[in-house]
Specification:
The protein folds into two domains: 64 residues; 66 residues, PH-domain like (Roll). Helix 1 packs antiparallel against helix 2. It has three helices and seven strands. It has 135 residues and is α+β, with helices and mostly antiparallel strands. The two termini are 19 Å apart. The chain is elongated. Strand 3 and strand 4 form a beta hairpin. Strands 1-2-3-4 form a four-stranded antiparallel β-sheet, with no helix packed on it. Keywords: Membrane, Transmembrane, Transmembrane helix.
Length: 135
């Protein structure tokens, strides 16, 4: 089973990416303020901060619109570069309002499955229930 989502269409993923970008811009602002307090030229620092912010916002636009793909087979969930073996998953929680499924597992790997469409969420939920019902 394969599906894709874009972070801009999923409320939780969008919030996560926007928080990350906000933190990066805030760190850039603090660093710029620190350099101004050290006595460097304000115009030079503002220009550097503006260019840094521009690149961060372009990165955010590209990241939010980029399609991401999940692939599930009988043994694994793949979300490049992460892999999760279904044998390591103890269960799952479905959040239809936020279009996501949280996998209960320990360690590294895919822990949250995001969706753009409710139909994809329902299909994966059915597939997971069937898979965990047989174990």
């Amino acid at each position: 089973m394969m599906w894709s989502y874009r972070a801009i269409k999923n409320p939780v993923a969008r919030k996560k990416w926007l928080s990350f970008v906000s933190i990066l811009v805030f760190i850039g602002f603090l660093y710029s303020l620190y350099r101004v307090l050290l006595g460097e030229s304000v115009i030079k620092i503002l220009l550097i901060f503006t260019l840094f912010s521009l690149f961060i916002f372009l990165y955010a636009i590209i990241s939010l619109g980029k399609p991401r793909f999940y692939l599930m087979d009988d043994e694994m969930i793949l979300y490049k570069p992460f892999k999760t073996r279904l044998s390591e998953v103890e269960g799952f929680e479905v959040d239809e309002k936020n279009l996501r499924i949280r996998l209960k597992k320990r360690g590294f790997g895919v822990k949250t499955l995001y969706f753009e469409k409710i139909e994809d969420l329902k299909n994966v939920e059915r597939w997971l229930k069937k898979k965990f019902g047989s174990q």
